[in-house]
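ligand=ribulose-5-phosphate
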Amino acid sequence: MTKNIEQEKQLAAKEAVKFIADHQIVGLGTGSTAYYAIREVGEMIKQGLDIQAVPTSNKTKELAESLHIPLVDINAVQSIDVTIDGADEFNRDLMLIKGGGGALLREKIVASLTREFIIIADSSKKVAVLGKFKLPIEVIPFAANYVLRQIQSLHGSGAIRSVGGKPFITDQGNFIVDADFGLITNPSQLAARLDEIVGLVEHGLFINMASKVIMGINGTTETFSREG
Ligand code: 5RP
């Protein structure tokens, strides 16, 4: 059967929004899969759903506002009940690579405050081993070359993401380095090493954060849950 990636994304999104209930604080992810979930939430608001949402990027904020989804400042909430976001890759332990859209920093902050962090994905995102997708890393511009050298010392390579010949700038005013470490057989260890690099603001390895991945496949969805 040929894959219908857009249908898979939509199916996953429709399934994920079932976990949203009245009076919750809801995190809204970024990217083409999260887009479908945000559209669903917009429809649910029209039908009377009463929630407040925290967007993970300026782009998502604009989309949510256009759909009249009530927003709340992240600094005004203690925690977030449920967040629905996409991923670039996930493995069977629900470890993720995120940041393809460049929003990984705010996405990780929102995920950190979240009780139920749900990833929605099409079936192309499921991998045996992370690392085919280059790992996005948010870097302070002042530290860019230093961080690139530190990545090399970890046996990786990287390049500053550019758009139209200019560095891509994140919502926090930083650069993104897309790093290649080959296949990442020990994501926790790599994450710990990256966490030690000064000037590296955040990386796109999300370890033990997702509680569920809902994946669209063959006209239906499959849900993977993390134990513990
Ligand atoms: C943005 C992200 C996205 O969730 C990730 O890149 C997946 O995007 P898409 O759903 O468009 O494939 O992490 O920073």
